[in-house]
């Protein structure tokens, strides 16, 4: 996959293998793996989870559902107490702007949603980019308060304004939300646009921006000599056994949008298994802000590893102190205590993120619970975001927690 820095002709080189956490006697420490079990074994109320499952199915019904299809995976500790699919991975062949409705496939041609269906994660990709960055901070190869210009002096806008790595991770760089990279004629023009971009807001003030993760991607690729897809695979998905997690293209994924003018920024038709985000597409499908595909079970493993202090089975992707750094307010890449999608889980240190395609995950260190809710809400066409169902699902999980 192309690197943001590939035009400069940088090659690949290895980095030292991650040190494993060992017991005093020299043996490997091992964190429990996820298993499917009853809500009661997880310390969760079965009645609340029954309501959660019913409400997930309700999200996919009717002529104008919240999403054609939904997958939910939720649990506590090492126990998956809910793993459910509803609706359709592919329901529409196109969108008809005259009737303002999706053109439905014949029932026999539709693709049912399953718990193994991969999704375009959209901005959940930012969480993996952030973990990859904190891994380099743990190794000492990246300074959290170092200036981006120290690693990327040719990125003149960021260098001139002293933007730091921490500001990229906390969306406080002042960079605008996005640039029209999809309108650039070639890779050289896209790279020139990114390198010249200056903050439009006051550095230190929160402004959510995809550009933060694109610059962070460039920093990571510069200091490691590896492309982001390799860093995510070798540092996160492979050690955790997340075999369904990778940058696209992805066979069998849930369909997203009939992406056409004037509602979209590119004219690409019905998308399935290729990245939805127009800028990530323009960058070849591997981008710091979007491009990953994954399943509910894989994301539950990701949540479980962070809740267990960075370990899952025999693998350790971060030390506990660095997981704490990642999740401590305001969060590095992760959003913390956001009631608009966390419902009653917010207010006590819950962390997570949402994605434009309809994806979300939440992990709550206070109660050791996780909630992965994946949907193709942009199928067959994007619409104003509605995170009410995410917040209600999170509230169900909060109310399901039993004291142990």
Short key terms for the protein model shown above:
Beta-lactamase, 404 residues, 17 strands, globular, 8-stranded mixed beta sheet
List the helices and strands and how they pair.
Layout: E1 35-36, H1 46-58, E2 69-76, E3 79-90, E4 92-96, E5 101-104, E6 111-112, E7 119-120, H2 125-139, H3 148-151, H4 156-160, H5 165-169, H6 187-196, H7 210-224, H8 228-240, E8 246-247, E9 255-259, E10 269-272, H9 278-282, E11 292-294, H10 296-307, E12 311-312, E13 315-316, H11 320-327, E14 335-336, H12 339-342, E15 351-354, E16 360-364, E17 369-375, H13 388-400
Parallel strand pairs: 1-3
Antiparallel strand pairs: 2-3, 2-17, 3-6, 4-5, 7-11, 8-11, 9-10, 12-13, 14-15, 15-16, 16-17
Helix pairs in contact: 1-13, 2-7, 2-8, 2-11
What does this structure look like?
The structure is a single chain. With 404 residues, this protein is an alpha+beta fold. It has a domain at 29-122 and 226-400: Beta-lactamase. Helices cover 30% and strands 18% of the residues. The chain has 13 helices and 17 strands. The chain has helices at residues 46-58, 125-139, 148-151, 156-160, 165-169, 187-196, 210-224, 228-240, 278-282, 296-307, 320-327, 339-342, 388-400, and strands spanning 35-36, 69-76, 79-90, 92-96, 101-104, 111-112, 119-120, 246-247, 255-259, 269-272, 292-294, 311-312, 315-316, 335-336, 351-354, 360-364, 369-375. The strands form five sheets. Strands 1, 2, 3, 6, 14, 15, 16 and 17 form an eight-stranded mixed beta sheet that branches. Helix 1 (46-58) packs antiparallel against helix 13. The longest helix is centred in the N-terminal third of the chain and has 15 residues, at 125-139. The protein is globular. Mean pLDDT is 93; it is low at 4-27.
């Amino acid at each position: 996959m192309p690197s943001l820095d590939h035009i400069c002709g940088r090659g690949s080189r290895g980095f030292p293998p991650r040190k494993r956490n060992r017991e005093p006697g020299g043996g490997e420490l091992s964190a429990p793996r996820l298993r499917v079990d009853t809500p009661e074994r997880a310390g969760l109320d079965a009645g609340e989870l029954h309501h959660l499952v019913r409400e997930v199915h309700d999200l996919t019904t009717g002529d104008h559902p919240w999403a054609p299809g939904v997958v939910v995976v939720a649990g506590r500790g090492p126990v998956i107490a809910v793993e459910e699919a509803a609706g359709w991975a592919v329901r529409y062949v196109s969108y008809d702007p005259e009737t303002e409705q999706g053109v439905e496939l014949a029932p026999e041609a539709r693709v049912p949603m399953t718990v193994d269906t991969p999704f375009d994660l959209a901005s959940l990709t930012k969480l993996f980019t952030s973990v990859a960055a904190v891994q380099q901070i743990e190794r000492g190869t990246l300074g959290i308060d170092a200036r981006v210009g120290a690693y990327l002096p040719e990125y003149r806008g960021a260098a001139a304004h002293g933007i730091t790595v921490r500001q990229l991770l906390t969306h406080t760089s002042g960079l605008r939300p996005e640039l029209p990279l999809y309108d650039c004629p070639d890779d050289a023009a896209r790279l020139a646009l990114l390198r010249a971009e200056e903050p439009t807001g006051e550095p230190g003030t929160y402004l959510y921006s995809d550009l933060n993760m694109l610059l962070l991607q460039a920093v990571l690729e510069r200091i490691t000599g590896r492309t982001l897809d390799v860093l995510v695979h070798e540092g996160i998905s492979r050690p955790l056994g997340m075999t369904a997690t990778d940058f696209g293209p992805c066979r069998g994924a849930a369909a997203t949008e009939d992406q056409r003018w004037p509602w979209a920024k590119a004219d690409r038709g019905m998308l399935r298994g290729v990245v939805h985000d127009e800028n990530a597409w323009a960058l070849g499908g591997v981008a710091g802000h979007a491009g990953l595909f994954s399943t509910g079970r894989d994301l539950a493993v990701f949540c479980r590893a962070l809740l267990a202090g960075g370990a899952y089975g025999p693998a350790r992707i971060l030390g506990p102190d660095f997981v704490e750094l990642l999740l401590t307010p305001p969060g590095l890449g992760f959003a913390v205590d956001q009631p608009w999608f966390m419902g009653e889980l917010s207010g006590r240190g819950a962390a997570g993120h949402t994605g434009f395609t309809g994806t979300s995950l939440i992990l709550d260190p206070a109660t050791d619970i996780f909630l992965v809710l994946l949907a193709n809400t942009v199928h067959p066409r994007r619409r104003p975001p509605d995170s009410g169902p995410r917040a209600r699902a999170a509230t169900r999980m909060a109310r399901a927690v039993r004291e142990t």
